[in-house]
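FW: tagging you since you asked about this chain on Friday. Here's the raw sequence from the shared folder, copied in full. Didn't touch anything.
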Amino acid sequence: MALFFWLAVESLSAYSRSRLKLRVGLGDPIVSNRFLLIGLYGALAAVTYPTYLWMYIMYERHGIWSDPLSVFTGILEVLSLAALWTSFAAPAFYRRWIAKAQAKSQLRVGLRPELLRRIAAPFWNRAQRGLAVGL
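HL: got it, structure written out here
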């Protein structure tokens, strides 16, 4: 369960970094969206498996399955698998939709010097102090 939580945290942090790169035109919108989908899968799976555990505990104690909990777990499972499937095998219409949305946002944002300075400032400060520059 902790591994799914770790997957969610790392993927969503990579997604936030890739969104900054996209704003200046240095990334691929499909790859950025895949980070989001994998993070969503990790978060949903991190909630799903403890729910399964709770269902089995309830069954052992009372001898019946909890119908609301079964429905909740099923919904979580379907959503997590949909996110995982879409991240690795996205249909063509979904990829076009993501690319079109990114093209519209780049038209709105453009490459502004103040945005580039804000993004590059942490890396520039680290480089001046002699630390390794990492993305």
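FW: Residues 2-128 form one domain.
HL: agreed, and The chain has five helices and no strands.
FW: great, closing this out.
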